[in-house]
């Protein structure tokens, strides 16, 4: 009996588990290690912050998913890997594996000793947000995540004074000029104070600080001895397999694909789910692995907090209520696949 251990309940692992339920592999024990029984879907979270979606609508029930996949759900926190002994080290003990996959996401990069709350881990952020009753907040990071979060926080708390800090001289630097100009206009019209070209170590004039900065990796990944990139993310090949340890796979934010420079975005984690399943299954069955090649361009749908959204694709952009309807349909369709399990 082979032991497959999935560490983390991210998008790729959720999709892979559903595939294991639909296409069982004999003589394999599957264990999912997760810190919580529910995992958030990033596409619906800004709308949840605004109050458009309930908690249940934007979270996947991992216990039901594991039952469908005939997998064991272990509620625990992974703190390391012992690659020599083939063990995942957890707070409550060790979990042995023959094959292991990591989908543990990332956290915002914060200066040493910085105060405030990170937008990830999402569960911690939502707990904080549900209890927050301040009058002002500083959001550090003017990329897609920071801009969308600012607008949706304001939608929920219209009287909230929001300061948005961006180290670069322009917001949303990964998007085209039209999209950047649209959001500059929207944020200004709604009274969100913009501070561009300013690096922040701490914000002392606000009731709270939320960090939505560049992604950082948990230190134990590098400490385990896995090959990592300069930021500490697992280096994987076109099969989503560690370049240093073939018994280790990784997907989502925690993985960096060799030869493919792609942002840490949820769209890639979703797209990696089925290729990850295929290659995990192929490895277990000693079959040939199948390469995954991420797309160069991808459609980004960014909510503006008023059931309108902006679509960004390469050099093109649109802003309209119908874009929100498309985004809502795509996001709900993704979640519905986990509600139709039998």
Automatic annotation (TrEMBL):
<dbReference type="InterPro" id="IPR000408">
    <property type="entry name" value="Reg_chr_condens"/>
</dbReference>
<feature type="domain" description="FAD/NAD(P)-binding">
    <location>
        <begin position="4"/>
        <end position="273"/>
    </location>
</feature>
<dbReference type="Pfam" id="PF07992">
    <property type="entry name" value="Pyr_redox_2"/>
</dbReference>
<keyword id="KW-0285">Flavoprotein</keyword>
<dbReference type="InterPro" id="IPR051169">
    <property type="entry name" value="NADH-Q_oxidoreductase"/>
</dbReference>
<dbReference type="InterPro" id="IPR023753">
    <property type="entry name" value="FAD/NAD-binding_dom"/>
</dbReference>
<comment type="similarity">
    <text>Belongs to the NADH dehydrogenase family.</text>
</comment>
<keyword id="KW-0274">FAD</keyword>
<keyword id="KW-0560">Oxidoreductase</keyword>
<dbReference type="GO" id="GO:0019646">
    <property type="term" value="P:aerobic electron transport chain"/>
</dbReference>
<dbReference type="GO" id="GO:0003955">
    <property type="term" value="F:NAD(P)H dehydrogenase (quinone) activity"/>
</dbReference>
<dbReference type="InterPro" id="IPR036188">
    <property type="entry name" value="FAD/NAD-bd_sf"/>
</dbReference>
<dbReference type="InterPro" id="IPR017584">
    <property type="entry name" value="Pyridine_nucleo_diS_OxRdtase_N"/>
</dbReference>
<protein>
    <submittedName>
        <fullName>Pyridine nucleotide-disulfide oxidoreductase family protein</fullName>
    </submittedName>
</protein>
């Amino acid at each position: 009996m082979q032991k497959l251990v999935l560490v983390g309940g991210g998008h790729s692992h959720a999709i892979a588990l559903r595939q294991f339920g639909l296409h069982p592999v004999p003589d394999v024990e599957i264990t999912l290690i997760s810190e919580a029984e529910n995992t958030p879907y990033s596409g619906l979270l800004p709308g949840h912050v605004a109050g458009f979606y309930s908690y249940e609508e934007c979270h996947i029930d991992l216990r039901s998913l594991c039952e469908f996949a005939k997998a064991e759900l272990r509620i625990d926190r992974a703190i390391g890997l012992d690659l020599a002994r083939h063990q995942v080290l957890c707070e409550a003990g060790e979990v042995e594996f023959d094959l292991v996959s990591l989908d543990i996401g990332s956290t915002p990069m914060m200066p040493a000793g910085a105060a405030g709350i990170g937008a990830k881990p999402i569960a911690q952020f939502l707990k904080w947000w549900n209890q927050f009753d301040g009058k002002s907040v500083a959001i550090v990071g003017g990329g897609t995540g920071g801009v969308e979060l600012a607008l949706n926080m304001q939608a929920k708390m219209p009287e909230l004074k929001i300061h948005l800090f961006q180290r670069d001289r322009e917001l949303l630097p990964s998007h085209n000029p039209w999209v950047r100009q649209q959001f500059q206009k929207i944020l200004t019209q709604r009274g969100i104070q913009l501070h561009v070209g300013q690096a922040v170590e701490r914000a002392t004039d606000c009731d709270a600080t939320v960090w939505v900065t560049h992604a950082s990796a948990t230190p134990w990944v590098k400490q385990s001895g896995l090959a990592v990139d300069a930021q500490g993310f697992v280096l994987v090949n076109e099969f989503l397999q560690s370049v240093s340890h073939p018994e280790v796979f990784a997907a989502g934010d925690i993985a960096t694909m060799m030869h493919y420079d792609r942002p840490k975005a949820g769209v890639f984690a979703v797209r990696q789910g089925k290729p990850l399943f295929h290659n995990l299954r192929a490895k277990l069955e000693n079959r040939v692995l199948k390469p995954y090649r991420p797309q160069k361009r991808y459609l980004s749908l960014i909510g503006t907090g008023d059931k309108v959204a902006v679509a960004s694709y390469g050099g093109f952009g649109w802003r309209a209520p119908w874009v929100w309807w498309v985004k809502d349909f795509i996001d709900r369709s993704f979640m519905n696949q986990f509600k139709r399990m039998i």
